[in-house]
């Protein structure tokens, strides 16, 4: 059975375009995550830690190594913004 050689050009274009869009999407996701891979299976604990890191460093993926938090961290708690019914 002969091979239809003229089908290689469109098939090559399809493969290249899927590769380009997949690579572009991967790069866009990494740029939004500070150059780190995308997180999967994020639970409540991970979400809480990401919000804490956001308050400490200004980035969801950034982590601080200072043993003492900055003074601004003392007033950036979520508890100060909620109403408490007593």
Word description of this protein:
The chain crosses the membrane at residues 7-28. Keywords: Electron transport, Membrane, Mitochondrion, Mitochondrion inner membrane, Respiratory chain, Transmembrane, Transmembrane helix, Transport. The chain is mainly alpha-helical and 86 residues long. It has one domain (8-81). The chain is 45% helix and 0% strand. It has helices at residues 8-32, 44-57. The radius of gyration is 23 Å and the shape is rod-shaped. The termini are far apart. The mean pLDDT is 82.
What's the count of strands? 0
Question: Strand-residue fraction?
Answer: under 5%
- What does the largest sheet look like? none
Name the structural class. mainly alpha
Radius of gyration from CA coordinates: 23 Å
Q: Give the SSE string.
A: HH
**Can you tell me the overall shape?**
rod-shaped
Mean pLDDT: 82
**Helical coverage, percent range:** 40-55%
Q: Helix count, per DSSP?
A: 2
Give the termini distance in whole angstroms. 83 Å
- Show unreliable segments: none
